TrEMBL record:
It comes from the Archaea. It comes from Halomicrobium zhouii. Pfam families: DUF7089. Residues 87-113 are annotated as: Disordered. This is Uncharacterized protein.
Amino acid sequence: MFTERPLDGEVATVRERHAPDAVVLDCERDFETLDPAVAEDLLLLTDSVDPLSYPDHWVPADAPEPLHRLASTQFTVGMPGDGGVAWAGSSDGGEDEHTASGEGRPARHGQTTPPVVLVKPRLEGSPEDFVDFLLAEAFVEVGLGLPEHFLGFFEDRYADLADAVGDRLDPAGTYQLAAALFDAYVGLHTREVFADWEGDLPRLHAAWVDAGQRLEPRLSDLSEEVAMGRTDFAAAAELACSAVKHDIELPTPFAALDTQAYREYGAEYAVTWAEKTVDSLD
């Protein structure tokens, strides 16, 4: 199922800076969540595996089944919405390692030692610079010590988020919104690193800039599309929040997520924003 992926050039430099112990693996098949038996194959490639688990009351009864599996004691790698690169674990070293304190951060808990970064076959045929940016992004996230998934970010506030938006979003929409909000929170931390690449990692910096420029036209009419009901709120949030890491201007009402207040207060801020925003759409 897994083969080690060789790295060189700028992407290898980013791994050395932020997650020097990370194991990078190509996967034989695409996945959203790895089957338990397949996930356990990672035991052969890591020093230890410590599955995440969360209290039952963090996950509403009607939440999507993958979220219930993640909250259980079952070793879960990858979740819907992860895209072409997934990762698990946290780094033992690197320039950006720090303890999870302040800025609304939950305590860090990585499932694997060392961390693993998984590249899915869906990326075959994608531009090399784009794939390298996704890998570099994963190394930066691993090194920052942020949670692997939004449930580790929201913790018991995920139930509060579901309550806040339940009249407008179904459980799948709530999941999509939570993933988007977490993406924005992560982006507030990673974009500082990406911007610094301009000096000595020009190829990766150009890939970061290019991805942001491709998003900008899709954001220009997003507020109107949501107001007119042409774009679902959760889908609009997913698009807007993905732009935070590229440091480009967000439309209303998503601009309130591109703030120091969100970086500082984290999940509490996200739930309050969601509640006020959903109420304003009625």
